[in-house]
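Dear H.,

Thanks for agreeing to be a second pair of eyes. The structure we're designing against is below in C-alpha cell form, covering all 210 positions.
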C-alpha cells in the first residue's frame, strides 16, 4: 500500500491531500471533511483504512482553511473554488489517479462534492452525513444541492446517521427519487467511534455501482 501526502496550491490557499493507493488501483475516492472538523473524523479514517483493501485509491483532503489553522470553514463559494483545483491536480499529470472518480465527503464536504461533481468530471458522488438542513430548521432545506449529481446523471449514495439532527435517513429519502440511494447507519451526525456499518455501506455501493 502506497501512502503519501501531497501539498496542492489553490486560489484560496494551500490544501493537503492524504493519498492511500493500493497496487493496481481500480478507481479513486476523493473525500473532503466537514465544517467543524478534519480528516481525523472516525468515518473518514475508517474508509481510508478499509476501502483501499478493496482496490480503490482513497484521498482525504484537508481544505485550505483547515491547513491555515482556521477553526471555522470558509463560505460555500470559497470552498468550491478550493476544491476544484485539488481534484484536477489529483487526476492529472504523471502521478494521476485512476478512474472511475468518485467524489464526496462528510457534512459540508458532501455539499461541496455535490455542487462541483459535474465540473470536476466525477463518475459518482458519496455523501456521508449530508446536512439536509440546520438542526431544528427543516424549512431551510439543502435538498436541491443533494439532487445535483442525479440531475447530471451521476450515481449517488448517502450514508446517514439514524439520529442525525441535520436530517434522518427517512428525511433524506423523502427528497430523492429512490429510497435505495440512502443507507442508514448507527449514531448521529458523527456516526460512532467505530463506524463499521458506514464502511460496509460504502464498500457495497462502490462494488455495485462501479
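And this is the sequence the design step returned. I haven't edited it by hand at all.
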Amino acid at each position: 500500500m502506497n501512502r503519501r501526502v501531497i501539498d496542492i496550491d489553490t486560489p484560496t490557499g494551500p490544501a493537503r491531500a492524504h493519498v492511500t493507493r493500493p497496487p493496481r488501483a481500480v478507481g479513486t475516492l476523493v473525500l473532503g471533511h466537514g465544517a467543524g472538523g478534519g480528516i481525523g473524523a472516525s468515518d473518514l479514517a475508517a474508509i481510508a483504512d478499509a476501502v483501499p483493501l478493496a482496490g480503490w485509491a482513497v484521498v482525504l483532503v484537508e481544505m485550505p482553511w483547515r491547513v491555515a489553522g482556521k477553526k471555522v470553514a470558509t463560505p460555500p463559494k470559497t470552498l468550491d473554488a478550493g476544491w476544484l483545483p485539488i481534484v484536477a491536480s489529483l487526476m492529472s499529470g504523471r502521478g494521476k489517479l485512476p478512474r472511475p472518480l468518485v467524489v464526496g465527503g462528510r457534512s459540508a464536504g458532501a455539499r461541496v462534492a455535490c455542487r462541483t461533481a459535474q465540473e470536476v468530471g466525477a463518475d459518482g458522488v458519496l455523501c456521508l452525513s449530508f446536512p439536509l438542513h440546520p438542526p431544528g430548521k427543516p424549512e431551510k432545506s439543502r435538498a436541491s444541492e443533494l439532487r445535483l449529481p442525479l440531475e447530471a446523471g451521476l450515481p449517488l449514495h448517502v450514508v446517514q446517521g439514524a439520529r442525525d439532527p441535520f436530517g434522518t435517513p427517512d428525511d433524506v429519502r423523502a427528497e430523492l427519487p429512490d429510497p435505495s440511494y440512502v443507507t442508514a447507519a448507527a449514531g448521529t451526525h458523527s456516526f460512532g467511534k467505530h463506524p463499521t456499518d458506514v464502511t460496509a455501506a460504502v464498500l457495497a455501493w462502490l462494488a455495485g455501482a462501479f
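Two observations from my side: Residues 76-90 form the longest helix (15 residues). Helices lie at 42-50, 64-67, 76-90, 108-120, 143-151, 169-173, 196-209.

Warmly,
E.
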